[in-house]
Amino acid sequence: MISLLSSKNEDFDAQLSSLISWEANSDEEINNTVRKIIKEVKNKGDSSVLRFTSEFDSLDAKSISELTITKECLEKSFDNLSPKQKDALTNAAQRIESYHLKQKQESWNYTEDDGTVLGQKVSPLDRVGLYVPGGKAAYPSSVLMNSIPAKVAGVNELIMVVPTPKGVVNELVLAAAHIADVDMVITIGGAQAIAALAYGTETIPKVDKIVGPGNVYVATAKKQVFGQVGIDMIAGPSEILIICDGSTDPDWIAMDLFSQAEHDEEAQSILLCPDEGFIEKVRSSIQRLLPSMERELIIRTALKNRGALILTKDIDEAIKISNKIAPEHLELSVENPESILGDINNAGAIFMGKYSSEALGDYCAGPNHVLPTSSTARFSSPLGVYDFQKRSSIIMASKEGAINLGETAATLAYGEGLQAHAMSALYRTDKK
Fold first, then answer.
1. What is the number of other CB atoms lying within 10 angstroms of the CB of residue 218?
2. Which of 94, 200, 255, 273 shows a CA-CA span of 20 to 30 A to 316?
3. How far from 250 is each of 228, 295, 329, CA to CA, in Å?
């Protein structure tokens, strides 16, 4: 049910490339459908959002206000939770906030000898849109992970959209919105919600950036409105890669592989290990534990299609393969993870040591669980406070500084054939 590979095989590189390949392209029919939805929402505003909400979510309303959940209702949803759920959400939110407070960047400047001041002004985005999957699915962790960094950054207004097909509302999601102090919650979803956030309607404010996961229509819509607004990323299937030296309980490793495979049939779970005997133990654990999983069929399909247990020459080779894969989640399930951390170059989140299960990062460890997938960890980072801040350069030249810099600027401007640039710099000197 899961591939067994060895780095010694002559065709291993080709096998690995085939294993990790994944295309995020939606088909032309979906692209066209989303394009039409965006165009209609852009042109007709609220009325089109209401029509699409009725058509796709079987939820009829005469106005957007009927689809807007008040802050009082969000608080009531929190109050309706069990004490255990309240404690879990509150604890997770506090840990996420504590971690992200350390990411907040501040403005800075310095003064040169001639009095010229240079620096950077750091400002929060004014308004951000958060998409949260809805209906029977419950992703309160997604609410916390996307909204808390925005609030830490100082975002003035956070608007959350969440579909509620046939009016099904998930109280955990709404309770998380209460804890995260979301400013507005509107029960709309799909491409129409993305379009409404990107362009604004009569009653839905236009945002500066859209974050949060969604289905293929949501992902396609985010791609199509990018440039009109900022987006976080286009995420692919969830991934976990485990480097293990054979010292961890094989049942733990099997369950860690399951934890990502249960997301969907395209999720990827990979183990890299130099101990062939341990790999066999993990395979036995997989066969024994899988029938007890509620999402057995999804896990089985994911492991069969995109999973692998890979025998490597040693841990060093496992690290090289991991850096090539650049996984979303990387577990270093070895005796001394600190000794190899410096060699890890490409990973969204790194879980160090046998006790650090990836699931802790999904919910409550503190670091963000919105991570780069599909090898984009080669150049991308986890969602963070910095994604909700923008930076402006500060240049305040003194009279002496204008003279010192003017000749340099003019020389370079003349070299580019831009006379007005040169003269603009020289007009502030005695050499015009």
1. 22
2. 255
3. 48, 20, 18
Q: Which two tokens stand for residue 298?
A: 């999804």
Token reading at 205: 């404010």
Q: Which residue has the tokens 């999402």?
A: 295
Q: What is the pLDDT at residue 29?
A: 92
Q: Is 402 left (phi over 0), alpha (psi -120 to 50) or beta?
A: alpha
**What rounded mean pLDDT belongs to the chain?**
95
Question: For the chain, what is the radius of gyration of the CA atoms?
Answer: 26
Task: Give me the phi and psi of 390, to 5 degrees please.
Answer: -125, 155
Q: Note the pLDDT tens digit of each residue in 58-104.
A: 999 999 999 999 999 999 999 999 999 999 999 999 999 999 999 99
40 close to 48: Cβ distance less than 8 angstroms: yes
CB 382 within 8 A of CB 368: yes
φ, ψ at 35 (rounded to 5°): -60, -40
Report DSSP letters for 124-183, one per residue.
E-SEEEEE---TT---HHHHHHHHHHHHHHT-SEEEEE---GGG---HHHHHHHHHTT-S
- Quick one: DSSP state of residue 226? B
Reference 266, options 30, 24, 26; nearest CA is 24
pLDDT band at 403 (very low <50, low <70, confident <90, very high): very high
For the chain, the distance separating the N- and C-terminal CA atoms, rounded to the nearest angstrom, is 77
User: How confident is the model over 333-356, as a mean pLDDT?
Assistant: 97
Q: State both tokens at 211.
A: 């974050």
The residues annotated with a catalytic role in the active site are 328-329
- DSSP E strands: which ranges in 232-307? 239-244, 268-273
236-289: per-residue pLDDT in tens? Answer: 899 999 999 999 999 999 999 999 999 999 999 999 999 999 999 999 999 999
- Other C-beta atoms closer than 10 Å to the C-beta of 105 total 13
Tokens of 235: 């995420």
Does the predicted model carry a pTM greater than 0.90?
Answer: yes
What token pair was written down for 334?
């070895």
How far apart (Å, rounded) are the C-alpha atoms in residues 194 and 178? 22
- Long-range contacts (CB closer than 8 Å, 24 or more residues apart) made by 111-116: 112/401, 114/398, 114/400, 114/401, 114/404, 115/398, 115/399, 115/400, 115/401, 116/395, 116/396, 116/397, 116/398, 116/400, 116/401, 116/404, 116/405
What does the block give as tokens for 28?
């032309």
- In the chain, helix, strand, coil percent, each to 5? 50, 15, 35
Q: Catalogue all structural domains in the chain, each as residue range(s) with its CATH number.
A: 3-24+236-365 (3.40.50.1980), 28-231 (3.40.50.1980), 397-426 (no CATH)
